[in-house]
């Protein structure tokens, strides 16, 4: 490329130098900046570097600062889009999410590293330590998420096939939950819960709310020519209320369940239902509260069983009876 063409890239190359080779712990001098620009066949003088730094600082999204050390002046970039601690959180999240395939996580981490200096990115790469973690093998999951986001934004119905784990031909594999069955769902929200990513929507055939794990959805398509159920409810959907009331994202009939418990399990209850619940001191070390709009199903009973002898269901009576049946069924397995 002729030198005149390289000169046109001067500001871009200068920003790249600051972005990749500097941070608050690694700074460079003006001669070092000039030398790095020369490696791109870009010739500049000192006063040009100073003027270009002023121009870059007008862009926003970062700040190029200088620090005096002895007789030398050093420059570095700060106030980037992401701090290194924020990038580490995103890296950890990319590794932890089971619905993201392992190779996709590695690709995302490499892209996140581009927001840091080469020195910081080395630290991010060393942070990658969850290889071998249980992750989905559904490599179309990001395409599924893109389509679902588009459906929520445009308020359009989506159709897809839904899969479950099965054991056939001496191996574990995903198989259609209902062979050749295509779900037609009006979207409500996407939500991350209990290490999985869920799509929430209304089944158009039975007009009932359902939850689907996105890593088990395939063959998804947007339906342009059908009117969705409750399009005006998409923007006001109560995601937090939905997650708090449905255990393991299993849709069930909602009930107000009155319980009593000992103080040693107070933390478990608050972790699940938050600090807004009203607690009554019942005496003798027992407390009471009403869990509002709980999805009463085996998933709720399983969670309640974990609390053990430190809690009991008081009412409604039919929920007590269902819980007793659940316990007896479990006991009959042994």
Write up what this structure looks like.
The chain has 334 residues and is α+β, with helices and mostly antiparallel strands. It folds into four domains: 3-78, Winged helix-like DNA-binding domain superfamily/Winged helix DNA-binding domain (Arc Repressor Mutant, subunit A, Orthogonal Bundle), CATH 1.10.10; 84-127; 141-237; 254-332, Alpha-Beta Plaits, CATH 3.30.70. The chain contains twelve helices and 13 strands. It has helices at 3-7, 10-21, 30-39, 46-57, 84-96, 102-113, 118-127, 141-154, 239-245, 266-273, 298-307, 317-332; strands spanning 28-29, 63-69, 72-78, 157-168, 171-176, 183-193, 196-203, 208-213, 217-223, 254-262, 280-283, 286-295, 311-315. Helix 5 (84-96) packs antiparallel against helix 6. The model has no long low-confidence stretch (mean pLDDT 83).
């Amino acid at each position: 490329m002729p030198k005149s063409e390289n000169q046109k890239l001067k500001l871009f190359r200068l920003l790249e130098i600051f972005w990749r080779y500097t941070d608050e712990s690694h700074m460079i001098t003006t001669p070092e900046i000039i030398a790095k620009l020369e490696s791109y066949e870009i010739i500049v003088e000192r006063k040009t570097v100073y003027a270009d730094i002023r121009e870059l600082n007008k862009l926003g999204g970062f700040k190029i600062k200088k620090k005096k050390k002895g007789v030398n002046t050093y420059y570095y970039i700060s106030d980037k889009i992401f701090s290194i601690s924020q990038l580490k959180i995103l890296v950890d999240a990319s590794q932890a999410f089971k619905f993201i395939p392992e190779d996709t996580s590695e690709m995302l981490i490499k892209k996140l590293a581009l927001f840091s200096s080469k020195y910081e990115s080395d630290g991010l790469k060393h942070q990658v330590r969850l290889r071998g973690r249980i992750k989905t093998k559904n490599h179309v999951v990001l395409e599924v998420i893109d389509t679902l986001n588009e459906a929520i934004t445009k308020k359009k119905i989506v159709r897809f096939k839904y899969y479950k784990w099965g054991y056939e031909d001496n191996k574990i594999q995903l198989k259609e939950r209902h062979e050749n069955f295509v779900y037609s769902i009006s979207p409500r929200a996407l939500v991350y819960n209990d290490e999985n990513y869920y799509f929430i929507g209304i089944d158009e055939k039975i007009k009932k709310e359902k939850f689907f794990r996105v890593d088990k959805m395939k063959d998804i398509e947007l339906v342009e020519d059908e009117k969705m159920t409750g399009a005006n409810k998409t923007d006001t959907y109560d995601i937090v209320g939905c997650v708090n009331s449905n255990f393991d994202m299993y849709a069930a009939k909602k009930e107000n369940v009155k319980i009593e418990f000992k103080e040693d399990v107070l933390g478990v209850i608050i972790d699940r239902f938050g600090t807004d619940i009203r607690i009554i001191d019942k005496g003798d070390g027992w407390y009471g509260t009403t869990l509002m709009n709980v999805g009463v199903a085996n998933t709720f009973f399983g969670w309640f069983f974990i609390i053990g002898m430190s809690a009991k269901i008081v009412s409604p009576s039919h929920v007590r009876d269902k819980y007793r049946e659940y316990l007896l069924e479990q006991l009959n397995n042994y």
